[in-house]
Write a structure and sequence with these properties.
By secondary structure, this protein is of the alpha/beta class. The protein contains 15 helices and nine strands. The chain is globular and about 60 Å long.
Protein backbone atom coordinates (compact mmCIF):
# COMPACT_ATOMS: atom_id res chain seq x y z
CA UNK A 1 0.00 0.00 0.00
CA UNK A 2 1.28 3.42 -0.82
CA UNK A 3 2.33 5.71 2.02
CA UNK A 4 -0.40 8.25 1.26
CA UNK A 5 -3.11 5.55 1.40
CA UNK A 6 -1.79 4.22 4.71
CA UNK A 7 -1.87 7.70 6.22
CA UNK A 8 -5.48 8.25 5.08
CA UNK A 9 -6.54 4.93 6.66
CA UNK A 10 -4.71 5.74 9.89
CA UNK A 11 -6.41 9.14 10.22
CA UNK A 12 -9.80 7.63 9.39
CA UNK A 13 -9.42 5.00 12.11
CA UNK A 14 -8.20 7.62 14.59
CA UNK A 15 -11.15 9.87 13.82
CA UNK A 16 -13.59 7.01 14.40
CA UNK A 17 -11.97 6.15 17.72
CA UNK A 18 -12.02 9.79 18.80
CA UNK A 19 -15.71 10.12 17.92
CA UNK A 20 -16.50 6.99 19.95
CA UNK A 21 -14.53 8.27 22.95
CA UNK A 22 -16.31 11.65 22.84
CA UNK A 23 -19.69 9.93 22.57
CA UNK A 24 -18.96 7.82 25.64
CA UNK A 25 -17.73 10.82 27.59
CA UNK A 26 -21.00 12.68 27.02
CA UNK A 27 -23.53 9.85 27.12
CA UNK A 28 -22.31 7.74 30.05
CA UNK A 29 -22.43 10.49 32.70
CA UNK A 30 -26.01 11.41 31.78
CA UNK A 31 -27.06 7.78 31.85
CA UNK A 32 -25.39 7.29 35.25
CA UNK A 33 -26.90 10.45 36.76
CA UNK A 34 -30.42 9.65 35.56
CA UNK A 35 -30.32 6.23 37.15
CA UNK A 36 -28.93 7.44 40.50
CA UNK A 37 -31.34 10.37 41.03
CA UNK A 38 -34.01 9.19 43.52
CA UNK A 39 -36.72 11.44 42.06
CA UNK A 40 -36.91 13.40 38.80
CA UNK A 41 -35.94 17.07 38.88
CA UNK A 42 -39.57 18.17 38.67
CA UNK A 43 -40.07 16.62 42.13
CA UNK A 44 -37.35 18.71 43.75
CA UNK A 45 -38.39 20.56 46.93
CA UNK A 46 -37.33 24.20 46.56
CA UNK A 47 -36.57 26.04 49.81
CA UNK A 48 -36.11 29.84 49.90
CA UNK A 49 -33.15 31.35 51.74
CA UNK A 50 -33.72 34.89 53.03
CA UNK A 51 -31.22 37.41 54.36
CA UNK A 52 -31.01 36.61 58.09
CA UNK A 53 -29.16 33.72 59.66
CA UNK A 54 -31.74 31.82 61.70
CA UNK A 55 -33.95 31.41 58.63
CA UNK A 56 -31.03 30.24 56.49
CA UNK A 57 -29.65 27.80 59.09
CA UNK A 58 -33.02 26.23 59.93
CA UNK A 59 -33.97 26.02 56.24
CA UNK A 60 -30.69 24.20 55.55
CA UNK A 61 -31.39 21.89 58.49
CA UNK A 62 -34.89 21.05 57.21
CA UNK A 63 -33.41 20.47 53.76
CA UNK A 64 -30.94 17.96 55.24
CA UNK A 65 -33.81 16.05 56.85
CA UNK A 66 -35.66 15.90 53.53
CA UNK A 67 -32.53 14.73 51.72
CA UNK A 68 -32.09 11.99 54.32
CA UNK A 69 -35.56 10.80 53.27
CA UNK A 70 -34.51 10.75 49.58
CA UNK A 71 -36.11 14.02 48.53
CA UNK A 72 -34.02 16.14 46.16
CA UNK A 73 -33.70 19.65 47.60
CA UNK A 74 -32.76 22.94 45.97
CA UNK A 75 -32.07 26.15 47.90
CA UNK A 76 -32.96 29.45 46.29
CA UNK A 77 -31.62 32.80 47.53
CA UNK A 78 -34.48 35.29 47.46
CA UNK A 79 -35.41 38.33 49.52
CA UNK A 80 -38.45 38.31 51.77
CA UNK A 81 -40.37 40.74 49.54
CA UNK A 82 -39.98 38.73 46.33
CA UNK A 83 -40.63 35.31 47.86
CA UNK A 84 -44.42 35.67 48.05
CA UNK A 85 -44.94 36.01 44.32
CA UNK A 86 -42.45 33.19 43.79
CA UNK A 87 -44.30 31.00 46.29
CA UNK A 88 -47.65 31.75 44.65
CA UNK A 89 -46.21 30.44 41.36
CA UNK A 90 -44.58 27.38 42.90
CA UNK A 91 -41.03 28.64 42.32
CA UNK A 92 -40.36 28.09 46.04
CA UNK A 93 -42.45 25.68 48.06
CA UNK A 94 -42.52 26.72 51.73
CA UNK A 95 -41.15 29.32 54.13
CA UNK A 96 -40.32 28.09 57.61
CA UNK A 97 -39.82 31.42 59.43
CA UNK A 98 -42.17 34.34 58.73
CA UNK A 99 -42.25 37.21 61.24
CA UNK A 100 -45.41 39.21 61.89
CA UNK A 101 -43.95 42.72 62.48
CA UNK A 102 -42.22 42.88 59.09
CA UNK A 103 -44.31 40.51 56.94
CA UNK A 104 -47.91 40.51 58.18
CA UNK A 105 -49.28 42.94 55.61
CA UNK A 106 -47.97 41.06 52.57
CA UNK A 107 -48.88 37.60 53.86
CA UNK A 108 -52.44 38.66 54.70
CA UNK A 109 -52.87 40.01 51.20
CA UNK A 110 -51.57 36.83 49.54
CA UNK A 111 -53.56 34.52 51.84
CA UNK A 112 -56.79 36.46 51.27
CA UNK A 113 -56.35 35.93 47.53
CA UNK A 114 -55.53 32.24 48.12
CA UNK A 115 -52.14 32.71 46.48
CA UNK A 116 -50.23 31.25 49.46
CA UNK A 117 -51.21 28.88 52.27
CA UNK A 118 -50.97 29.62 56.01
CA UNK A 119 -49.50 26.56 57.78
CA UNK A 120 -49.86 27.94 61.30
CA UNK A 121 -47.77 29.52 64.04
CA UNK A 122 -44.71 28.33 65.93
CA UNK A 123 -44.55 28.43 69.73
CA UNK A 124 -41.86 31.12 69.42
CA UNK A 125 -42.99 34.72 69.93
CA UNK A 126 -41.30 37.64 68.24
CA UNK A 127 -40.19 41.17 69.00
CA UNK A 128 -38.65 43.38 66.29
CA UNK A 129 -37.74 46.95 67.17
CA UNK A 130 -35.05 49.51 68.02
CA UNK A 131 -32.38 48.04 70.33
CA UNK A 132 -29.11 48.90 72.04
CA UNK A 133 -26.44 46.90 73.93
CA UNK A 134 -26.50 47.33 77.71
CA UNK A 135 -23.45 49.61 78.00
CA UNK A 136 -25.30 52.33 76.03
CA UNK A 137 -27.73 52.89 78.93
CA UNK A 138 -24.92 54.47 80.97
CA UNK A 139 -24.20 56.91 78.15
CA UNK A 140 -27.82 57.95 77.67
CA UNK A 141 -29.69 58.27 80.99
CA UNK A 142 -33.40 57.68 80.65
CA UNK A 143 -33.20 54.73 78.28
CA UNK A 144 -35.05 52.53 77.42
CA UNK A 145 -37.81 55.19 77.42
CA UNK A 146 -38.10 56.52 73.85
CA UNK A 147 -38.22 60.12 75.07
CA UNK A 148 -34.56 59.84 76.08
CA UNK A 149 -33.55 59.35 72.43
CA UNK A 150 -33.78 63.02 71.45
CA UNK A 151 -31.81 64.13 74.51
CA UNK A 152 -28.98 61.82 73.38
CA UNK A 153 -29.38 62.04 69.60
CA UNK A 154 -25.96 63.67 69.11
CA UNK A 155 -24.32 60.62 70.75
CA UNK A 156 -25.57 58.45 67.90
CA UNK A 157 -24.76 60.91 65.10
CA UNK A 158 -22.41 60.28 62.19
CA UNK A 159 -19.91 62.87 60.99
CA UNK A 160 -21.10 66.45 61.34
CA UNK A 161 -24.79 65.57 61.55
CA UNK A 162 -26.70 66.53 64.68
CA UNK A 163 -29.22 63.73 64.08
CA UNK A 164 -28.72 60.28 65.48
CA UNK A 165 -28.26 57.29 63.18
CA UNK A 166 -30.54 54.27 63.42
CA UNK A 167 -29.15 51.18 61.68
CA UNK A 168 -31.77 49.01 60.05
CA UNK A 169 -32.05 46.44 57.27
CA UNK A 170 -33.94 46.06 53.99
CA UNK A 171 -37.26 45.21 55.66
CA UNK A 172 -40.29 47.47 56.04
CA UNK A 173 -40.99 48.39 59.66
CA UNK A 174 -42.60 51.83 59.08
CA UNK A 175 -39.57 53.45 60.73
CA UNK A 176 -39.77 56.65 58.64
CA UNK A 177 -43.38 57.09 59.81
CA UNK A 178 -42.37 56.34 63.42
CA UNK A 179 -39.58 58.95 63.29
CA UNK A 180 -41.95 61.61 61.89
CA UNK A 181 -44.84 60.79 64.25
CA UNK A 182 -42.72 60.87 67.40
CA UNK A 183 -40.51 63.73 66.22
CA UNK A 184 -37.30 61.77 66.66
CA UNK A 185 -34.03 63.48 65.72
CA UNK A 186 -32.82 60.38 63.90
CA UNK A 187 -32.15 59.31 60.34
CA UNK A 188 -32.27 55.79 58.93
CA UNK A 189 -29.09 54.05 57.83
CA UNK A 190 -30.48 51.23 55.71
CA UNK A 191 -28.13 48.25 55.37
CA UNK A 192 -28.31 45.36 52.89
CA UNK A 193 -28.77 42.44 55.28
CA UNK A 194 -28.49 41.18 58.85
CA UNK A 195 -24.74 40.54 58.60
CA UNK A 196 -24.18 44.22 57.86
CA UNK A 197 -26.11 45.11 61.02
CA UNK A 198 -24.01 42.74 63.13
CA UNK A 199 -20.86 44.26 61.62
CA UNK A 200 -21.93 47.69 62.89
CA UNK A 201 -22.74 46.22 66.31
CA UNK A 202 -19.35 44.53 66.65
CA UNK A 203 -17.54 47.67 65.53
CA UNK A 204 -19.42 49.77 68.11
CA UNK A 205 -18.89 47.26 70.91
CA UNK A 206 -15.16 47.03 70.25
CA UNK A 207 -14.80 50.71 71.17
CA UNK A 208 -17.85 50.88 73.49
CA UNK A 209 -19.43 53.44 71.19
CA UNK A 210 -23.16 54.29 71.35
CA UNK A 211 -25.35 52.50 68.80
CA UNK A 212 -29.08 52.22 68.18
CA UNK A 213 -30.05 49.50 65.72
CA UNK A 214 -32.74 47.14 64.57
CA UNK A 215 -32.76 43.87 66.45
CA UNK A 216 -35.21 41.09 66.99
CA UNK A 217 -35.93 38.28 69.40
CA UNK A 218 -35.52 35.34 69.23
CA UNK A 219 -31.99 36.09 68.04
CA UNK A 220 -28.38 35.27 68.87
CA UNK A 221 -28.08 38.38 71.05
CA UNK A 222 -30.63 36.85 73.48
CA UNK A 223 -27.99 34.50 74.85
CA UNK A 224 -24.73 36.18 73.80
CA UNK A 225 -25.03 39.99 74.18
CA UNK A 226 -27.29 41.62 76.80
CA UNK A 227 -29.28 44.58 75.58
CA UNK A 228 -32.65 46.29 75.65
CA UNK A 229 -35.39 47.24 73.23
CA UNK A 230 -36.56 50.86 73.22
CA UNK A 231 -39.86 51.28 75.05
CA UNK A 232 -41.99 53.06 72.48
CA UNK A 233 -45.72 53.72 73.09
CA UNK A 234 -47.43 50.34 73.19
CA UNK A 235 -48.66 48.99 69.89
CA UNK A 236 -52.37 49.05 69.10
CA UNK A 237 -54.00 48.39 65.69
CA UNK A 238 -55.50 51.90 65.80
CA UNK A 239 -51.96 53.28 65.84
CA UNK A 240 -51.66 52.32 62.17
CA UNK A 241 -55.05 53.56 60.96
CA UNK A 242 -56.28 56.36 63.25
CA UNK A 243 -54.07 59.47 63.52
CA UNK A 244 -56.06 60.70 66.53
CA UNK A 245 -55.01 57.64 68.51
CA UNK A 246 -51.78 57.91 70.50
CA UNK A 247 -49.32 60.61 71.56
CA UNK A 248 -49.45 62.47 68.23
CA UNK A 249 -53.07 63.38 67.37
CA UNK A 250 -52.13 64.33 63.80
CA UNK A 251 -50.10 61.35 62.60
CA UNK A 252 -50.42 57.56 62.58
CA UNK A 253 -47.66 55.09 63.44
CA UNK A 254 -46.78 56.80 66.73
CA UNK A 255 -46.15 53.48 68.49
CA UNK A 256 -43.64 50.66 68.62
CA UNK A 257 -43.96 47.30 66.90
CA UNK A 258 -46.18 44.59 68.26
CA UNK A 259 -44.80 42.55 71.16
CA UNK A 260 -45.31 38.76 71.39
CA UNK A 261 -45.92 38.67 67.66
CA UNK A 262 -46.36 35.42 65.77
CA UNK A 263 -43.78 33.55 63.72
CA UNK A 264 -45.47 31.38 61.10
CA UNK A 265 -44.98 28.94 58.22
CA UNK A 266 -46.40 29.50 54.74
CA UNK A 267 -46.47 27.39 51.59
CA UNK A 268 -47.37 27.17 47.92
CA UNK A 269 -51.13 26.35 47.62
CA UNK A 270 -50.38 23.10 45.74
CA UNK A 271 -47.73 22.02 48.24
CA UNK A 272 -49.84 19.28 49.87
CA UNK A 273 -50.93 17.90 46.51
CA UNK A 274 -47.37 17.82 45.16
CA UNK A 275 -45.51 16.69 48.30
CA UNK A 276 -48.07 15.24 50.75
CA UNK A 277 -45.55 13.77 53.20
CA UNK A 278 -43.28 16.82 53.13
CA UNK A 279 -46.39 18.93 53.74
CA UNK A 280 -47.22 16.81 56.81
CA UNK A 281 -43.66 17.16 58.07
CA UNK A 282 -43.59 20.95 57.70
CA UNK A 283 -46.94 21.34 59.47
CA UNK A 284 -45.53 19.36 62.43
CA UNK A 285 -42.51 21.65 62.84
CA UNK A 286 -42.86 23.88 65.92
CA UNK A 287 -39.93 26.20 66.60
CA UNK A 288 -39.29 27.63 70.06
CA UNK A 289 -37.51 30.88 70.88
CA UNK A 290 -34.46 28.85 71.92
CA UNK A 291 -34.35 26.95 68.64
CA UNK A 292 -34.43 30.12 66.55
CA UNK A 293 -31.92 32.02 68.70
CA UNK A 294 -29.51 29.07 68.70
CA UNK A 295 -29.65 28.82 64.90
CA UNK A 296 -28.71 32.50 64.65
CA UNK A 297 -26.00 32.22 67.31
CA UNK A 298 -24.25 29.31 65.59
CA UNK A 299 -23.81 31.40 62.44
CA UNK A 300 -23.56 35.00 63.67
CA UNK A 301 -21.68 34.60 66.96
CA UNK A 302 -19.94 31.21 66.84
CA UNK A 303 -19.07 31.88 63.17
CA UNK A 304 -19.90 28.47 61.73
CA UNK A 305 -20.82 28.20 58.06
CA UNK A 306 -24.54 27.83 57.39
CA UNK A 307 -24.09 24.17 56.45
CA UNK A 308 -22.12 23.35 59.60
CA UNK A 309 -24.48 25.39 61.76
CA UNK A 310 -27.39 23.37 60.32
CA UNK A 311 -25.66 20.11 61.27
CA UNK A 312 -24.98 21.30 64.83
CA UNK A 313 -28.53 22.59 65.14
CA UNK A 314 -29.92 19.21 64.09
CA UNK A 315 -27.72 17.49 66.66
CA UNK A 316 -28.84 19.77 69.49
CA UNK A 317 -32.55 19.46 68.67
CA UNK A 318 -32.50 15.88 67.35
CA UNK A 319 -35.31 14.66 69.63
CA UNK A 320 -37.69 17.37 68.41
CA UNK A 321 -36.78 16.76 64.77
CA UNK A 322 -37.31 13.01 65.17
CA UNK A 323 -40.72 13.62 66.70
CA UNK A 324 -41.74 15.87 63.80
CA UNK A 325 -40.64 13.17 61.36
CA UNK A 326 -42.44 10.37 63.19
CA UNK A 327 -45.64 12.42 63.25
CA UNK A 328 -45.67 12.58 59.45
CA UNK A 329 -45.57 10.02 56.67
CA UNK A 330 -42.11 11.23 55.66
CA UNK A 331 -40.63 8.65 58.04
CA UNK A 332 -42.63 5.82 56.48
CA UNK A 333 -41.50 6.31 52.90
Amino acid sequence: MELSSRLRLLFANSASKLALILLLLFVVPFATNSSSTPLPLKNTVIIPLNNWSSQRVISNAIGKVLQAHKYPVEYRNINSQDQWGAMARGLVHFQIEVWEPSMDEETRSFVSKKRILDLGSHSAKAVEDWWYPDYVAKLCPGLPDWRALNRCAALFAQGNSDKGSYYTGPWNYRDPELIRSLGLDFTLVRLDDAKSIWHQLRKAMKHQQPIIMLNWSPNWTDARIPGEFIHFPTYHPSCESDPSWGVNPNKAYDCGNKKNAWIKKYAWPKFEQKFPCVYQFITQIDLSNEMISEAAALADFDDYSEKKAAELWLQKFSSQVQQWSKSSCISRQ
